[in-house]
Write a structure and sequence with these properties.
The complex is a heterodimer of chains A (256) and B (230). Chain A has 256 residues and is α/β, with parallel strands linked by helices. Chain A contains 9 helices and 12 strands. The relative contact order of chain A is 0.17. Chain B has a single domain, classed as MetI-like fold. Chain B is 75% helix and 0% strand. The chains are: A alpha/beta (256), B mainly alpha (230).
Chain lengths: 256, 230
Amino acid sequence: MTDPIIKFDKVVKRFGDLTVLDELDFEVKRGEKVSIIGPSGSGKSTVLRILMTLEGIQDGMVTVDGEPLWHQQGTNGLEPASEAHLRKMRGRLGMVFQQFNLFPHMTVLRNITEAPVKVLGMSKKDARVRAEELLERVGLADQASKYPHQLSGGQQQRVGIARALAMRPDILLFDEPTSALDPELVGEVLTVIGQLAEEHDLTMLLVTHEMRFAREVSDRVCFFDQGRIREQGAPEDLFTAPTEERTREFLKAVLN
Amino acid sequence: MLFGFEWDLSSPLAFAISIMPILLTGMLVTIQAAVLGFAVALVLGLVWAVLKSAPIRLIAWPATVITEFIRDTPLLVQLFFLYYVLPEYGIILPAFMTGALALGIQYSAYTAEVYRAGLQAVPADQHEAARALNLSTARTFTHIVVPQAIPRIVPAMGNYLVSIMKDVPVLSVVTVLEMLNVAKIVGDRTFDYLIPLSLVGGLYLIMTLVASAGVRLLDDWLPKQGIPLK
């Protein structure tokens, strides 16, 4: 139980000449709720995208649940991961996107059941029952037959959360889940995420600009700056008594 | 007399009415050639599009060269090639088939681009969402990408259908009895070209307007978000 469920070991990620992650070391314990804050371009989202296998890495090692994510055991030691390995690993993670990324041509119900049926091999009936439970949980029980464009942004994002949960991930990644929402719709999404944070087993990684919310729900807050963790700690400590000058500057800028 | 229909030269109107069944027979051939050619273009174009986007360069590169070659040479040259060269190698097709095939091949180079653009226009977001849900590549293509690409593809394809109709008269040079060829024969025999050719123009206008309207209806009917999957 003390082993981290997520471990970044000197991970380097570059886009061309731009170094996004600079030998990043980062660990998350099972069931831990971690918020990642920091200026844009600091590599926050990249951490999530690497975990979701949407972006590869140039150097270092990412481990999920003790297994290398971007590598696999070959005949001569570790090799770059095959698609089959990535598929296996991906099953442990789920992601909620900034722009929701719902499938616009599918009903809400189909958005949620598509992957459980086709990937997990659930029966359509079971998947439907499960989807209805999840919709109930995110407060959208009566919206199952609607299409995404018929919903508000907040409702769409809650569908996005239900869709990710339907795959029963151990780790749920939230990539700025409220940044694309009108201010009055942010609350309903945060409420749902807050309820999820009560779940003991679920590991959550949340990239966010909602500082108050990060403070409420997280066990730990990490301040990212220039591809590294500049400072991290319990929310009360980091928000009330940051030790680093950069953290203080950032918090001062965003909290005003 | 042509196709068993006599013409009546007593007055221009009587002449026009009497040759109408003859022209309509030709129009039927025109429509058949256009539809068959379009079907070939739709299927072959998709094949090109898939080959061109193949990750293996040994596949993608020849497909690119071939489609570029098709696009940059005249339809008439390709038609002559199929009509006169293939029989030398024992492949003998009826003139109509050769013509429809030539149209289909020529237009496949254009439809390939329409497919490619339509497929690429589906946002990367959608691919990422599908990947995060662990959907297979094939499933993502057939159930996420294609249903969203179709509404983007249909309008451009409709334009090529109209365009292909207007290219059918080229087939007259290899003896296909499509509408223009039939009108020309009527003119040759009656020494009156004005009426048959004017009628061909009018019938063409009706055909293309109907086809355009059909495409527009289809376009309006297709939901912009993609083909709905319940």
